[in-house]
Give the backbone structure.
Amino acid sequence: MERLDLTGQVPDRLRGGVIALGNFDGFHRGHQAVVGRAIARARANGRPALVATFDPHPVRFFTPDAAPFRLTSLDQRERLFAAAGADAMIVFPFDAALASLTAEEFVQHRLAGLSGVVTGEDFTFGRGRGGNIGVLAELGRRHGFESEAVSPVSEGGETVSSSRIRQALQDGDCETATRLLTRPFAIEGIVQHGDKNGRKLGFPTANIDIGPYLRPRYGVYAVKGRRADGTMLDGAANMGVRPQFDPPKELLEPHFFDFHGDLYGERIEIEFHAYIRPEARFDSLEVLMEQMAIDCDEARRRLAQLKPGRSGGR
């Protein structure tokens, strides 16, 4: 699958394609319905199937001081879109130039030459959110493409949304997040050198900077780590500021069971499968070590209960 950063129209080789248009952060069940519809239309008509996303997220552009909220990185979205069957991922850099375009200018300068555009029913676009699905349909008639709006997907009587998933993760509810995403929430990053506290305690960890991702509830989790070669590692991870040690430092620190290799400098994706307990400060390192052993046993038990296939795909 191609990945293109575009500040203009789609290239000639992709003209006539059908594009799914949205942020698609998280690529949850609702997003999958939009992208799936675009791909189905493209395949039925022998057209390229495209998925567009924005980076940075418009919220980050308009509110740069907003707390971290991302559910997926661009690399993760690229893999998810490819697995869904897209031929190309279009990244529209969201900058001042893009933010200044009116709805009609956005269609003229970004969507010209396409045969179809598929969005969710709540999609808005253009300066001041001047465009919606009605405006898109009218502009499509004028500019030669068909538009389609896909209805929201519901689960448990509520609409599946990124905000609902974020709330579940902030509550430590991995099960709900996994169900809505159709895979576990996962943070991907480079394993970095740390203070070696885990190694000294007998529980070496692979320290990962959380970056722009949403912060799930601080605490200990049952996790799986996916290496670049697809190898999966079971483990327990602390997500938070390590209250036992000074100074406080926010990190994701997975400990992988029965693993003795070197992960430094490796990119790894950590899947959050179950919340075990909140972060805590203990009376001594000995008590902490005892609790870590208990946490690992509980993580092993939780992971052993997972249904086959409950891991995110590349």
User: Anything to note?
Assistant: The mean pLDDT is 93.
